[in-house]
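Q: I have 600 residues here and want to know how they pack in 3D. Can you give me a structure?
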Amino acid sequence: MSDSVFSTPSRRSLFKLGGVVAGGLALAACSSKGTGTGGASGGSAGTLPGIGNNGQVGKGRTQNADTLFIAGFQWGPPTTYNPFSPTAAWPAGGNVMQIVYESLLRWNILTGEILPGLAASYKVDGTSTVTLTMQDGITFNDGSPCTAKDAAFSFNIGKTAPVSVASFFQAADSIEATDDKTLVIKINQTKKNVGQVLRLLTETYVVPQKVFSAIPADKVATQIMTTPVGTGPFKVDTADQTQVVLTQTGSYWGKTFYGGLPVMQKIIHPIFKGNEDANLQFANGGLDVCQTFQSQIWKTWEAGKPTGTYLKSKPYYIPGSMPMLVFNCTKPGLKNPIVRKAIATCIDYASISDTAMSGYSGTVQPSLILPTGAEGKFFNKSEATANGWKYDKAGAEKLLTDAGAKKGGDGVYVLDGVRLGPWKLITPTGWTDWNAACEIIASSCKAIGIDVSTNFPQQAEVTQAIQGGNFDLGHWYVAGVNPASPWARFKDVLSQAEMKPIGTTAFANYGRWTNPDVEALLTAAAEAADDTAKKAAYDKLDSLYRKEIPMCPTMYRPDEFYEYSAVNFYNFPDEKNTYAPPMFRGAGNTWLYKLKKIAG
C-alpha cells in the first residue's frame, strides 16, 4: 500500500450525490467478455429471485467471478481507516457498510426492527438500563478476542477523546462491561431517551482496546491507520488512487450466526471522480452494486440491462431522509408563521419530485414524520390533511391577503410594513437535485409575489451560514430514518435546548425558532414507554410543527440509493424477495451472505 495515499486528506460528502466531475480509473478488471453485451443475457431469467427490474440476468463473469464490485461510497484516495477520524475512508467511515468494523446491533429501515450484531441480544429495563449479551467467539481480524470490554472501551473513549461517539453520553450516563460477555448501559434519567441510546448502539463501531488505548486521547481522531483491525468478514488488502480492495479474512466469527461466509472472496470499490463514470460503469455491467444518484435509472433496464432497485416502480427507492427548506425565523417577514405557511403552500412539490428527483420522491406530506416504512405507524394522515398544506398557488396568496398583505407596484407583497423579500435561498453548488429543487421553490415564490432568488456557494460556506444563522432561506438536511426517528428529526427542527445565538454554530433549529412548550413535548416523546404513548406525543409535536412551520420538507430522499446489477450475482433483496432491507449497512449486510453466483 502506497504511503502517499495516506498523506493528503480527502473527503467527498455523501450528500453530494449529483452533478459532480466525471472521471474514474481501474475498471478494466470490472468488464468481462463473459457478461455479454452490457452484461445482459437478452432473455428472461424465469423464476430466479433478485434479478433486474426487467426480469433479466447476466451470464456471470469468466474473470473476477468471486469479486463484488461496488461504488458510491469513496470519492478520493483513502486517507485513513481510523473509524474515529472525520475523514475515515470506506468502509471505516461512520454508519456505512459494516464489513470491516461492526456494531453491537443492526437496524432495519423497513420495519424499524433492531437485530443482533456483535451483541446476540439486548434487554431494555424501562427507561433505566439497557443490557447486552455478546455473541460467542468474536475475534478481531488479527486473531485476538473481542469482548464486552472492547465494546465498552469503544464508547468510553468519547469521554476523553474529541470524537463523535462522545455524543453517546448525552443520552447515557455510563456503559460498563460487567464481564467479558455482558454490557450494562445506564440511561440518562433527565432525558430518558432509550431510542437515542439504541440508535448509537447500531451506529458505533467496536474497536480493539489494545490498539486504541495506546494512542494519546488528543490524537485519537487524527491518527492515520492503514491497516484497520475490525471484527468483520473482510480486511483491507490494498488501496491506492484507483481503488480499495477488500479480501475475506479467512476466519470470521459470524460464519455460524449468518449461516456461512459471504459468497464473494473480494470486494473492490473503484474510485471515481464523480457520478457520471460510476453510473456508466453500472449501466455497462462493470459494477454489481451502486449507491449513486442516477437520473432516470429505469432507462438502464429499458435498454435491456439486468439492473434493479428494491421497488419495481416509482419511486424505486425506500424514503429515508427529508431535506428541508429552512426559514430564518429571526428575519422580518420570515418570522411570521403566516408567511412561512404561504411559502410552504406555494411550492410545486410534484415538479420537485419529477424534475429534481427523477420521480424518486413520493408525495410530500405536511409532517415531520415519513408516512411510510418504519415511521409510518406514527403518521397521522387525517390531522395532516385537515391542518396541513399542499401545493395551492391561489390558496397561498389567499393566506397573505387574508392577513392584510398588499402587493406593491413591483408585484411583491408587503405585510405589516415588511416587503416579502428580497431573500436568498442557499444550498451547496453541485448538489444538482437540491439546486434544481431550489430553483423550483424560488420560481413558486415569485409566482405568488414573494421575492426569492437562489444562490449556490461552496458547501463549506453554506454549512457555516446555516449553522451560524446567517441566511434568509436554506435547503438543508435533518435527521433521516434511524432507531431514534422521528424523535431525532423533531429535535433537529424544533429543539430549544440546542438553539444558539446568531453567529454561534448550531446543530439543530438552524432558523432559531422559539417556543416555550416544545422541550416538554420532546421529553414526553423520548421517554414514552410504548408506540401508543409515542404516537400521542408525536401527534402533539406534529400539530405544533404544522402551526409554526420553522422548516418545510421539500422531498423524500432515499436513505441510500440501493441499486444492483445482476451481471454476476443474483438473489438481491427487493420487494418480491424480502429477506433483507435495501440497505448497505446494518440489517442490510444480510444479503452479502445470501447472494448466489450466476455461473459456477
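Q: Anything worth noting?
A: The domain at 1-80+234-317+560-600 is CATH 3.40.190.10 (D-Maltodextrin-Binding Protein; domain 2). The radius of gyration is 24 Å.
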